[in-house]
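Morning. Coffee machine broken again, so started the prediction first thing and wrote up yesterday's gels while waiting. Chain of 165 residues, entered below exactly as on the submission form.
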Amino acid sequence: MRKRPYSRRIALLVSVLGLWHLGATGAAAQEAGFAVAIVVHPETDVDDLTFSELRTIFRGERQFWDNGRRVTLLMRAPVAAEREMILRRIYQMDEAAFREYWIGKMFRAEVASGPKLVYSADMARDLVTVIPGAITFVPASEVSAVTKVVRIDGKLPTDPGYALR
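Came back before lunch.
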């Protein structure tokens, strides 16, 4: 009976798993320093939202600001790192569930329209400043001087304990 070289296969498997673990750890470490800022149109009369309020806005459950202006949600295109964080933290969904969620809301006429798609952080930042009632998210590192950042539970993206880090 011939012995199979299991030790080589096991060593290869351990090496691959070790590299995968290092990659996953690296991604987690990178995300640990990554924060997403919630930004609104400069004339929107909101400076602070609870995480629960933010969630109701992003899920289309709250469609108007206190002044009666319609909320316009600007959402990054798929594969953006900040979109992945928003899907995980706010929606608690993956990409497929997110799409089904909005298709269902539109089909049941619970919303006038779904989120508006933007293709870059620059585009999101520029559009939120010109569309009254707009809300979006950008990497905290890409917030500009003309961007109105909303506190979440009293905290800015640079504060310890910020919810979208």
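Helices lie at 6-32, 51-58, 81-91, 95-107, 121-130. Going to sketch it on the whiteboard this afternoon.
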